[in-house]
Amino acid sequence: MSDTVNASEALRPAPGQDSPHTPGVPVRHTRAKGEPRFPDGPKADPAGSHFERRIRSFQPRRSRVTAGQADALQRLWPAWGFDIDGSRRLDLAEFFGNDNPVVLEIGFGMGEATARMAAADPATNILAVDVHTPGQGNLLNLADQLGLTNVRVGNGDAIILLREMLAPGSLGGLRVYFPDPWPKKRHHKRRLIQPEFLTLAATRLAPGAVLHCATDWEPYAEQMLQVLTAHPGFENTRPDGGFAPRPAFRPLTRFEGQGLEKGHVVNDVLFRRVPRDEQAADRA
Predict the structure, then answer these.
(1) Which keywords does this chain's UniProt record carry (predicted)?
(2) 256 is in an annotated binding site
(3) Nearest 5 degrees, angle CA 116-CA 108-CA 195?
(4) Residue from 38, 4, 9, 11 nearest 25 by CA
(5) In 10 A of CB 76, how many CB atoms?
């Protein structure tokens, strides 16, 4: 990971002088060895080795953080961000300051779609989780610019968040948009949407809550539909049991638009959390 933020040798101050910090002007910050990149921001590995080693569905991406993203991380992370360390149970009403339903979004990229959905539906809180530092900073910056109060940004492993930090039945929805498809066969075990994940997610979703997935990788879409259809905790919102058209509330992202222009097929699957009494009736 780069140690600079829009580096510029020309702005290095003379000895004894403070570093200039003008918004929009590139600045250099050289970290000493062992110094946190953002002292009050997201940690590199929040859960550390406190939990079991397992195959993960994600891998951190290393890329440059812009000055605007860095500024948002420094200013807003203490209020709107949190590390997924598994050390506490989140009180979502206290966390957001209201009792509105909370939707968990796993993997938000640069956050443009998340910010648009939050702005369009201020009565729904969005708990957005990713491991990409530039994206975390960008979403915080967008939330600040748009005056959003219904977005919180999590850093780390969503499995640990679901299992250790969220109460049963506490989520009003779950969104997984364009997860890593892990296209090579030997990597399919890394895909997020698997029976074990669905079983965990079902315990955290309130009855009737919707799990919404979208992908432009057709073999992964078929797997999503297959494992969700087979899981007793979910039922397809489509009467025909197939894919759903893109709902109006899910924005068409730049990435998705580029894929459509190349002929990619995007599939949405929307499944509802089945109440326990309905599951029992189906098994009878």
Answers:
(1) Methyltransferase, S-adenosyl-L-methionine, Transferase, tRNA processing
(2) yes
(3) 125
(4) 11
(5) 20
Task: Write the single-letter amino acid at 200.
Answer: L
> Three-class SS string for 253-273?
CHHHHHHHHCCCCCEEEEEEE
Annotated binding-site residue? 235:
no
Model pTM score: 0.80
Is 276 annotated to bind a ligand? Reply is: no
pLDDT (tens digit, 9 = 90+) per residue, 202-257?
999 999 999 999 999 999 999 999 999 999 999 999 999 999 999 999 999 887 88
Tokens 């959905």 correspond to 117
Q: What is the 3-state secondary structure (H, E, C) of the chain?
A: CCCCCCCCHHHCCCCCCCCCCCCCCCCCCCCCCCCCCCCCCCCCCCCCCCCCCCCCCCCCCCCCCCHHHHHHHHHHHHHHEEECCCCCCCCHHHHHCCCCCEEEEECCCCCHHHHHHHHHCCCCEEEEEECCHHHHHHHHHHHHHHCCCCEEEEECCHHHHHHHHCCCCCEEEEEEECCCCCCCHHHHHHCCCCHHHHHHHHHHEEEEEEEEEEECCHHHHHHHHHHHHHCCCEEECCCCCCCECCCCCCCCCHHHHHHHHCCCCCEEEEEEECCHHHHHHHHC
CA distance 132 to 111: 10
- Dihedral sign for Cα 130, 170, 174, 54, please: positive
Task: Give residue 192's identity as a one-letter amino acid code.
Answer: L
**83 labeled part of a ligand binding site:** no
Tell me which residues are annotated as active site. 180
